Amino acid sequence: MACRAALYLLALTASITHVLGAKNPNDILRHSITRHGYPVELHKVTTQDGYILTLVRIPGKGAPVLIMHGLIASSVDWTVQGPDKALAFIAADQGHDVWLGNVRGNTFSKEHIKLSRKDAEYWRFSFHEMGLYDLPAMVDYIRINSSSDTLHYIGHSQGGAVFLVMASMRPLYNRKFASVHLMAPAAYIHRATSPVFQFTTRVEELETIAKMTRTYEIVGRGAGSPVELLHAGHKMGLIPTDLVLTNVWYFTGVHDSINRSIVGDILANTPAGCSLYQLLHFGRNHLAKSFQQYDYGPDGNVRRYGARVPPEYPLANVTAPISLYYSEADNFVPAEDVEDLADSLPNVVHKHRIGLRKWNHIDYLYDTNAHRLYRSVVASLTDQRGTAEKK
Ligand SMILES: *[C@@H]1O[C@H](CO)[C@@H](O)[C@H](O)[C@H]1NC(C)=O
Ligand SMILES: *[C@@H]1O[C@H](CO)[C@@H](O)[C@H](O)[C@H]1NC(C)=O
Ligand SMILES: *[C@@H]1O[C@H](CO)[C@@H](O)[C@H](O)[C@H]1NC(C)=O
């Protein structure tokens, strides 16, 4: 049995190179834009701690907007629905200078000035470092390259959490944003009910296994990786679209709203990988019912923070004008958690509770009608700092 399974996997792996071809990450990024007829530029940005990130730009004459993906996602997710449907193109059509981020550790931001992704040390980051180093590096670069004092920001899920980390821990960055739009920001997540969160009761074991096996990258891509096998299997018709969707719905709640003809395109680049420490950080915050810094255990916390429990992110420092978008049916970032977040933020200029009963966490990316939400977000990319001061 085991032998047959192994042979089968071997055959599948061999055919993968054939089915998918070997693609260079930069080519994938360029193709994600040019296949839809838009111009593209790739920009490499180096963080203070040496990670080299790839920003994808659809150049425009208007104000720059930085669009940030969520956990295990990438810039490609903002393009996969194509013109008139995907956020990147809707923003570009409105004349914006569109910049799509890729955080450290995903398929497209895996380089480092000294470390290799094979080093355990490379993967020692959570969303904390993304907020502290990745975002500021991107923001500084975009401001200089586009000769613009301020930019707009749109983030989904972890893309919201990283903004809040930056704006609370490095408050000087608040002034650099004309408006900030967070869709289901994964800050407070203690009411999350998705079965995904079942792992949180076993975070310690997970960490032990990772250390034993020296496996810190989760759902990363690469020849022969499980996610590439899934993609190849789907492409060859061995794994039906319905089976993929059923598994997605198990985690997100059933909402038959993804265009079936793009499921193959989605699987081609999503999931895009992350570090185990991102999962552990979210998991521990879920249990702690808090949006707080990484938990290193009582002794580690005393050494690092001078207290046995990690400090919360000081949300009172987030003075940029924030708009929040959230939904009742989101079992990752529930509406009540976002409302609690709104109460902790000093400058919420707009709250948009999505009225669709089944709108779930990934509908922000893949719902066939997500373009309606995108149009309303893009229409509000105006300077909202004035609103800020009046409040
Ligand atoms: C922006 O980046 C491009 C590509 O690296 C470069 O050619 C251009 O000179 C930069 N512009 C500014 C104003 O820095
Ligand atoms: C953030 O706000 C807290 C008070 O809530 C303040 O003590 C702290 O200095 C601020 N952080 C930074 C980095 O300015
Ligand atoms: C589904 O995707 C296909 C391929 O991109 C597109 O032609 C079609 O219009 C989409 N359908 C809907 C309902 O968006």
TrEMBL record:
Segment forming the signal sequence: 1-21
Top-rank taxon: Eukaryota
Residue ranges constituting the AB hydrolase-1 domain according to the UniProt record: 64-365
InterPro entries referenced in this protein's UniProt entry, alphabetically: AB_hydrolase_1, AB_hydrolase_fold, Lipase_euk
One GO BP annotation of this record: lipid catabolic process
GO molecular function, one term: hydrolase activity, acting on ester bonds
Active site: S157, D330, H361
Alphabetic keyword roster: Glycoprotein, Hydrolase, Lipid degradation, Lipid metabolism, Signal
Family to which the UniProt record says this protein belongs: Belongs to the AB hydrolase superfamily. Lipase family.
Entry protein name: Lipase
